[in-house]
Structures are given as C-alpha cells and as structure tokens.
Amino acid sequence: ETSINGIALAVPGSRLPSFGVSMVSLGSGEYQRTNDMNDPLGTFKQGETAYLFTASKAFSTRFALGANIKLVQQRVEDFTGGGFGMDLGGWYAIRPGIRVGGSVANLGGPKVTLRAVEETWPTQMRAGVAAQVLHGKGLIVAQVDHSQVLGAKFHAGGEYWIQSGLALRVGMDDAAGTGGFSVRFAPQYQLDYGVADHPLGMTHRVGVSYRFGGFFASSKADPAVFSPTGERAVTKILLNARTKADAQSWSLEIVNKAEEVVRRFGGNGQTPAHIQWDGKDETGLPLADGSYRYHLVVNDRE
Description:
Elements: E1 3-11, E2 18-34, E3 40-58, E4 63-76, E5 79-95, E6 98-107, E7 111-113, E8 118-120, E9 124-133, E10 138-147, E11 151-163, E12 166-173, E13 176-186, E14 189-198, E15 201-210, E16 216-222, E17 235-242, E18 247-255, E19 261-268, E20 274-277, E21 293-300
Antiparallel strand pairs: 1-2, 2-3, 3-4, 4-5, 5-6, 6-9, 7-8, 9-10, 10-11, 11-12, 12-13, 13-14, 14-15, 16-17, 17-20, 18-19, 18-21
C-alpha cells in the first residue's frame, strides 16, 4: 500500500526569476510490528514529506539555472525527524531543438535523526540530453543518474504528438520498459498517464495539469532616439515574452508613419533577449529621419 503524491505551483518570471513551491509525500503501510520472539504486536506506518521552494532564471534563450531549498519530514512508527537540503540544476541549448542539462540533488543534506543515528540523504547527480525531431512533434531523451548508494542508472525514451491533443510515449528505465500517453483537452487542460515495470510490480502514474495565465510580452528600445550616421548608430530593442504552450515563432515589424513595414525580424522558438536595428530597410538602405513604431508578435504551438 505504497503511494507517492505531489502538487506544485509555478509562477513564470520575466525580469525577476521564476518561483515555485512543491509538496511531495511518500507513504506506506501497514507494516507488521513484532517483538524479539516474533509475536505480532499490531502494525505501523511510515511516511516522508518534502516541501520545495524553487527559484530559477533564464540568463538567455540558451542558458538557465535553478535551485531548490527543501524541508524534509520523516515519520516511522512513533519517531519523527526533519532536515534541510538543497538542489542545483541547469540546462544549455546547444542549438535550437537540442538541450543538455544536469543537476545535483541533496547538497549538504537533508540530515534526519529519527532516534539517535543521523541519516544523510545521498547526493544524486543527473545529466541528460533532449532533442526535438519531426518538426517539433517528436522528442528523444536520454539521461544518466548516479547515486552514492545505487550507482549509475541509464534512462531513455521518446514521445510523439500524433495530433495537438494526443501524445504517445515509450521508454526504458534502467533495464525495464515504460510507456504512457497524454491527452490535452484544451491548451490549459492535460491528462498524463505512465506505466513501468518495477521489482515490486507494475507502477502506474496519473497526472492532471491546468495552465493559467502565462501570456506576457514586452519590448523596449534603447536608445529610443538614434541615427545611423550619428554617435549612436544602432538601437537595441529588448524583447521579453512568455507563452502558455511552447513558443513556436516570433516576429518583430518596424513600421513608418505611413503604416508601411520597413523592416522585419523573426525566427522560430522563443524570442531572443534583444535585436539590433541600424535604421536601414530590408535592402540595406538608410531610412529617412522620423518616428518609427515596432510590433512584436509571439505564437505558441496552440
């Protein structure tokens, strides 16, 4: 009768870091209690709960770091204990669609004492790579875990979105096969299911997600007044955007007083941190002095 449950809330940041809070609980019971003569004395339960406070920051569209501060509480029979620990992680985009990442969990703890002996949670290191394929509909991942207690383990898998609302997954967890699917009822609602073969039997995981908010876009020109032939020859237009689903494409149009588009910028995926405009049109010729507006549009996969 072992179960693991979790709930989490994340608030994406723009100029400030992103923040999150999570709670994960593991419970098991009933275990049989006996004396030295193996006589039954009833049953007892055991459980662990972890509260994680998370902060993360994308320093560019290709690099991000994050950290957890966590409080852990453990209970076995009538004994309880608690401790603090930290996790660090990050990822780097080698190129669009390919990311590498790594993390170190349980740095300096938690250290939990139930009766008289202090138990330190083992440090766990992870490294992996993820690659988008088939024009973003598919994903292939591989990961290596290393623990002070369990040694190294290898995981790999992939997913394919048959359509915008249905995805299939298959994988390998150490030496056993895994599988699952996702059903997206709308951009904000999603149901996930996974199954894996475990030494204790088949394990099933079900998740329900609801996304709200998440839409944000801003831009700012610095300096706002410049001249291609003056002291400041270019202006840097700072871009910032968040979308509910994964960003698919972005475009920035520069418009003159006659509402004519004189220069276009754009690309796939998330917006870059900034673009630079030198006051020239699409052919490279300088534009006339005057006031120009710019219009940022970001599309997500929904």
